[in-house]
Specification:
By secondary structure, the chain is α/β, with parallel strands linked by helices. It has a single domain, classed as Spore Coat Polysaccharide Biosynthesis Protein SpsA, Chain A (Alpha-Beta Complex), CATH 3.90.550. The chain is 27% helix and 29% strand. The protein has 9 helices and 16 strands. Strands 1, 4, 7, 8, 10, 11, 12, 13, 14 and 15 form a 10-stranded mixed β-sheet that branches. The radius of gyration is 19 Å and the shape is globular. 39% of the residues are buried.
Length: 263
């Protein structure tokens, strides 16, 4: 199953770092946060990624182009005149398939998803944002999605900082969806980590479509949007303070999302 990662935004709220690179490429613990998210999915057996790039998309492509080099022990042998030998001793690579797609500089989130439709094909896929980490059990999330049979499932968490606010019924059907309302604390919000059926593409018109608005609102009206409640850890990286928080958790060995073993 493919995993779509939204990684094309400007990241203006963390401009100290994003002026040099896309926000998902900002490093915590010496690796881009995008890499951490991919490691989460890989831990549960999902290794086929589609990255929706945009702003400074060449940096994402170049990073993956050099991934083999940076994660292998290599001897460069120039001792024989006119010859160059490259000897690979040990590889410390993840068995990933990574498709990086330039989905445009100013394209909205829904438009980015629409642009990668041909790479997803006619199959169920997962999707999340490239700037937040979580310790949700992705296999259980997928099982929940398959059980209810609706078009879309998103992961809901309780967070004081408001993102996409959700009103959820007792059967986990999303009754209302509103984006970034600061009126209340302790409300269930959209944390990403979605499972989507290919029918979702029918709800996206084009580049100007914001995924969190018309598509999700239409799914709500039709009773086709479900929530998977996660009571564990989730943290996005919208600003320098949040980046430093994630860095501290990693440094102190207390990063809940880091379930994989070091290679």
């Amino acid at each position: 199953m493919k995993v779509v990662l939204l990684a094309g935004g400007l990241g203006t709220r963390i401009s100290e770092e994003s002026q040099y690179k896309p926000k998902p490429m900002i490093e915590i613990g010496g690796k881009p946060i995008l890499w951490h998210i991919m490691k989460e999915y890989s831990y549960y057996g999902f290794n086929d990624f589609i990255i929706c790039a945009g702003y400074k998309q060449h940096i994402i492509k170049e990073w993956f182009a050099d991934y083999f080099l940076h994660n292998s022990d290599i001897t460069f042998d120039y001792t024989t005149e006119g010859e160059r030998k490259v000897i690979v001793h040990d590889q410390h690579l993840d068995k990933w398939k990574v498709t990086v797609v330039d989905t445009g500089l100013d394209t909205m989130t829904g438009g980015r998803v629409k642009r990668i439709q041909k790479y997803v094909g006619d199959e169920t896929f997962m999707m999340t944002y490239g700037d937040g980490v979580c310790d949700v059990d992705i296999q259980k999330l997928l099982a929940f999605h398959k059980e209810h049979g609706k078009i879309a499932t998103l992961t809901a968490v309780i967070q004081e900082q408001q993102k996409g606010v959700l009103d959820i019924a007792d059967d986990n059907t999303v009754q209302a969806f509103r984006e970034k309302n600061n009126a209340a604390d302790g409300t269930m919000i959209n944390a990403g980590y979605m499972v989507l059926e290919p029918e979702i593409f029918n709800y996206i018109e084009g580049d100007s479509t914001v995924f969190e608005k018309e598509p999700l609102e239409q799914l709500v009206d039709k009773g086709e949007l479900m929530s998977y409640t996660h009571k564990g850890f989730w943290q996005c990286m919208d600003n320098k303070r949040e980046m430093e928080l994630l860095e501290r958790l990693l440094k102190n060995g207390k990063a809940p999302w880091k379930k994989w073993k070091e290679q």
